[in-house]
Design brief:
Number of domains: 2
Radius of gyration: 26 Å
Strand content: 5-15%
Order of helices and strands: HHHHHHHEEHE
Oligomer: single chain
Number of strands: 3
Largest sheet: 3 strands, mixed
CATH superfamily of the largest domain: Cation efflux protein transmembrane domain
Helix content: 55-70%
Length: 297
């Protein structure tokens, strides 16, 4: 199943959980359940936007985007982070107002039951999406899955708090719990914003992938015939890129040099899934000039 199909399921799940949680809030009057329902509404908006960005990221390169559209997924996680932060602020406001003006809860048992059902739906969906996100390295899919996981913990906390209200009669537990829920989803929103920023800044490959790259290059390296330098990498959504220079004897024919370059590129792309390698050929005694940032100042 493609990543877009998982996001379509996420949209459908979000609609169902919104209905369940809104009904739970309507019957109980619980501000913590209202906060939980608001987070599910954010889930729906985030899933719709993530679906749009995954569809855009899958588009092939064109004249205006010769390197493809892979970074579109980072906009999804950033957008969802903004929505989560806005939802957290709204929950804080509602919790503070209920703290100042407490109201008795009704039909708490029914509200708890609906919250448990919606949490179970989100849990199953989040588990499936996170597995798929790791498989295809989708930032948008992972962001949506992590938000659903946050929603599951939110619902669990809300249920625990409402059970506490039922057992003790302490109405102030409801707004207190809503504030804790807001803090939790605020943390997740900041995390998603940070991940989005890191991706848009062309972050290098992770340490494990770079180690695999070095291991492949070491297998081709020869003290007097082959050496590599200026290895530069970056990540863009599901794609990973690496550029490097390969030096060889000036006496080699172009055909021999090109054949070795193909072997190295194929070995690199086999070792690191999703990698696109670009190798510049240079004679052993030639050094390429690279323009540093300081040269532009």
């Amino acid at each position: 199943m493609k990543a877009s199909a998982y996001l379509k399921l996420s949209v459908a799940t979000a609609v169902v959980t919104i209905v369940l949680k809104t009904a739970a809030w309507w019957w109980t009057g619980s501000v913590s359940l209202a906060a939980d329902a608001l987070e599910s509404l954010v889930n729906l908006a985030g899933a719709v936007f993530a679906l749009a960005m995954v569809t855009l990221a899958a588009q092939p390169p064109d004249a205006e985007h010769p390197y493809g559209h892979h970074k579109a997924e980072y906009f999804s996680s950033g957008f969802e982070g903004i929505l989560i932060i806005a939802a957290a602020l709204g929950i804080f406001w509602g919790a503070f107002d209920r703290w100042r003006h407490p109201e008795p809860l009704t039909a708490v048992g029914l509200g708890v039951a609906l919250a448990v059902v919606s949490s179970a739906l989100n849990g199953v969906m989040a588990w499936a999406m996170l597995r798929k996100a790791r498989e295809v390295r989708s930032v948008a899919l992972e962001g949506d899955a992590r938000h659903l996981i946050t929603d599951v913990w939110t619902s669990a906390g809300v249920v625990a708090g409402l059970l506490g209200v039922m057992a003790t009669g302490w109405q102030w537990l409801d707004p207190l719990l809503a504030g804790i829920v807001a803090l939790n989803i605020l943390r997740e929103g900041v995390h998603l914003m940070r991940e989005s920023t890191r991706g848009l800044m062309d972050e290098a490959l992770d340490a494990d992938s770079l180690a695999q790259v070095q291991a492949v290059l070491e297998g081709f390296r020869h003290p007097h015939a082959i050496r590599f330098d200026h290895v530069v990498s970056r990540v863009a959504g599901q794609r990973r890129f690496i550029d490097l220079h390969m030096h060889m004897p000036a006496s080699w024919t172009l055909g021999r040099a090109a054949a070795l370059r193909v072997d190295v590129e194929q070995a690199l792309m086999s070792a690191v899934p999703g990698l696109r390698a670009s190798i510049q050929l240079l004679p052993m005694d030639v050094e390429a000039h690279t323009l540093d940032v300081e040269d532009l100042i």
